[in-house]
Amino acid sequence: MSLERVPRFRLAALPTPLEEARRLAEALGGPRILVKRDDLTGLAFGGNKTRKLEYLVADARAQDADTLITAGAAQSNHCRQTAAAARKAGMRCVLVLSRSEHNELQGNLLLDALLDAEVRMFEGGAGYDAGAAMAEVADELRRAGRRPYVIPVGGSNGLGALGYAQLVFELQAQLLERGQSADYLYVSSGSGGTQGGLLLGKRMFSAPYEVVGVSPGGRAEGVRRAAARAATDGAARLGLGWVFAPDEVVVHDEYVGPGYAVPTPASNEAIRLFAQTEGLIVDPVYTAKAAAALIDHARRGLIRRDATVVFLHTGGQPALFAYHQEVAQALERVPASVG
Questions:
Q1: CA atoms of 47 and 38, how far apart (whole Å)
Q2: What is the pLDDT of residue 142?
Q3: Whose CB has fewer CB within 10 Å in the chain, the N or C terminal residue?
Q4: How many angstroms separate the CA atoms of 49 and 26, rounded?
Q5: What is the value of pTM for the model shown?
């Protein structure tokens, strides 16, 4: 089965732009940097989850679901986009959220409320199982006569991964139109579905670049397993007998810092550098850590100066407003009006 034959519920403004970041590349002394703007997918401030949700919502509709259930941290970009997708599809949405650094009604949580998502807040940490919590909510809704559809954290199963296999085809066409090729594609990789989809698409469309994942929170080993699982499951859904092994998945976890949803000095610098060289805004939780890895690898010469890197901007900017105090630390100077 080809990708074109898999049902999709159109949510994203595609194709997203591919822009050259000349001033950022100059600041780093090379390499050439192209930014794939998946922050501009368009659904409720956009982000990478929208591509996955096109396939997941289509499946939910095919099963006659009336409610989407998903899980994430309090300031989850995935949950915000799922809530918006539910509204677009005429469904209700229940979000199973774990408390994190910022639980105030700001950023993504404010948008969840605006989208009228039902929020169930749980204490995270040891013993918390998002899958079990979602299953419990789904059972409750079935008893109440509703028809729930559970979307895994990050939309990261084989079906959701197809959204990023499709991106590879889109990106290949954009590079061909420019007469360019890429050597590396850097992407934030948390629950593994985005990177898994990229690996599937790379094999499907013979993309020459190495997919470099950067974990925003989890250990590399776990992310590798999740990405390989999503890629293998995605291939199976297309009738392909491909198996992806964790050891063929490249993931860096040395930029995590204290943990998920906790900014680091390097991610704060990345926020500032992207903004002040290119006018590009990256979020403090997810994309900024991948940006920090790209910056560090370029400075240390781990990327050749004559190489071409695609940086996949996965969105997440609403979280900036919940993390305003931490983001202020990214500034070399704080404006006088801030006090």
A1: 6
A2: 98
A3: C
A4: 31
A5: 0.94
